[in-house]
Amino acid sequence: MAILFMDKNADNIDRWLRELRANLAGHEIRQWPEEVGDRSEIEVAIVGLPERGELERYPNLKAILSTWAGVDRLMADGMVPRNVPLGRLVDGSLRADMTLFVLHWVLHFHREIHLYRELQAEARWQPLPYRETAERGVGIMGLGALGADAAEKLVGLGFAVAGWDAVAKDVAGVTSFVGANRLHDFLERTEILVSLLPLTPETEGILNKETLAALPRGACLVSCARGAHIVDEHLIAALDDGRIGAAALDAFRQEPLPADHPFWGHPRIFLTPHVAAKTNPRTAAQEIAEDVRRVLAGQPPRYPVDMKRGY
Ligand code: NDP
Ligand code: OXD
User: Residue of 56, 70, 74, 214 with fewest CB within 10 Å of its CB?
Assistant: First the structure.
C-alpha cells in the first residue's frame, strides 16, 4: 500500500517528496505521474493541483489531503471524487505568516501611510488627525483558522475588531456578526476590511459595489484570500471616487494577473503576487503526515472539507 503525491503546479516537488518521506518513514510515497504504478495500492493522495479526473481512478483511496488551505480549485467538477474524505491544510507557519501580512497592512492603513505617500508626491507637509487604535474599526470576514489568529493579534494591539462569519465565533475581544442579514451592520463599522473567507458560490463577488458602498467613506481593503471575492471593476470605481481609500490585494481572479489588468497601475492599489502566506513544505509535511497516520488508522482528516459548503 502506498501514498501518492500529485501537484501539476508545484515548482518544488523534490522538496515536498523529501519532507513527506522524512515525516512518513516506513511508508512508500509515490510521485505522480512517474511512480504511480498500480493505482489500487494508493490509500492516500496528497494533492496541490491534481489532474482532472485522475483521482477517480484510485479504487482504494481512503482520503485526499490538500497542500493548500483553500480548496476552491478542488471543488471544480472532476477534480476530486465526492465520496472520498478531503482534508485541507491548517498549519501554524501558514497562520503566522498570514497574521504578519494582515498586521502589516492594517498598521499601514491605520497610520495612513497610503495618504502620506500621496502628500509626499505633492511635497505637502500635512499631519493628518490622530486616531487611537481603539477608535479604529477593523473587520475580518472569516474568523477561521487564519482569520481568528489575525483578529486576536489585532485585539492585542488595541484595535476595535469585529468578525463576520456563517456561524458565531467566540474570539476574545472580537465582536461577532453572523450571517447575511448582519453583513451591512458589520461593514458599516469597519474602516479596515480584511477578507479571509474561502471562495465558494456564496462568497464569489462578495466585495461588490453594494458591500463596498456600505463601508465608511475612505475605508481600506486588505484582500488576502481569493481574487474572485472581488468584482474588479466595482473596486476600481470605488477607489476612483474615494469611497475606498486604498486596497492591498494579494490574490486575483486570474493568476498571474495579466499585464494589462488595471489593478497593476492603480495608484491606490498595493499588489502582491499571492504570497501572503505560502505553504511551507517543512511544516506542512508534518501536519499532512499527522493526517496520513490518522487516515491509515481509520480516522477522518482533522480539518475535513464539507463538500456541500465547499470549504
Ligand atoms: P477556514 O475554513 O478555517 O475559515 C473560513 C471562515 O470563513 C470560517 O470562519 C467560515 O465561517 C467563514 N465563512 C465561510 N463561508 C462563509 C459565508 N458564506 N458567510 C460568512 N462566513 C463564511 O479557512 P482558513 O482561515 O484556513 O483560510 C481562509 C482562506 O484564506 C482560504 O480559503 C484561502 O482561500 C485563503 N488563503 C490565502 C492565502 C494566500 O497566500 N493569499 C494562503 C492561505 C489561505 P464558519 O466557520 O462559520 O462556516
Ligand atoms: C492556500 C493559498 O490556500 O496559498 O493555501 O492560497
Answer: 56
Tell me the β-bridge partners of 164.
141, 177
pLDDT at 9: 86
Pick the catalytic residue from 226, 229, 234, 268.
226
Tens of pLDDT along 188-206? 999 999 999 999 999 999 9
Query: Peptide bond preceding 85: is omega within 30 degrees of 0, i.e. cis?
Result: no
Cα(293) to centroid(ligand 1), Å = 25
Distance 142 CA to ligand 2 centre (A): 15
pLDDT in the model for residue 214: 98
End-to-end Cα separation, the chain, in angstroms: 29
Residue 226 is among the residues annotated as catalytic for this protein: yes
4 sits in which H/E element:
strand 2-6
Closest by CA to 135, choosing from 191, 61, 94, is 191
What distances in angstroms separate CA 16 from CA 21, 148, 153, 218, 292, one per listed residue? Answer: 8, 28, 31, 43, 15
Q: Ligand 2 pocket test: which of 68, 98, 203, 250 has the largest number of ligand atoms within 8 Å of its C-beta?
A: 68
Is residue 274 among the annotated active site residues? yes
Looking from the CA of residue 90, the nearest atom of ligand 1 is 26
Q: Which of 105, 271, 311 to mutate to test the pocket of ligand 1 (most atoms within 8 A of CB)?
A: 311
Q: To 5 degrees, how large is the angle CA 255–CA 248–CA 274? A: 30
Q: Which of 236, 222, 239 is nearest to 277 (CA)?
A: 222
Q: Delineate the domains of the chain, giving CATH numbers in brackets.
A: 2-91+279-296 (3.40.50.720), 93-271 (3.40.50.720)
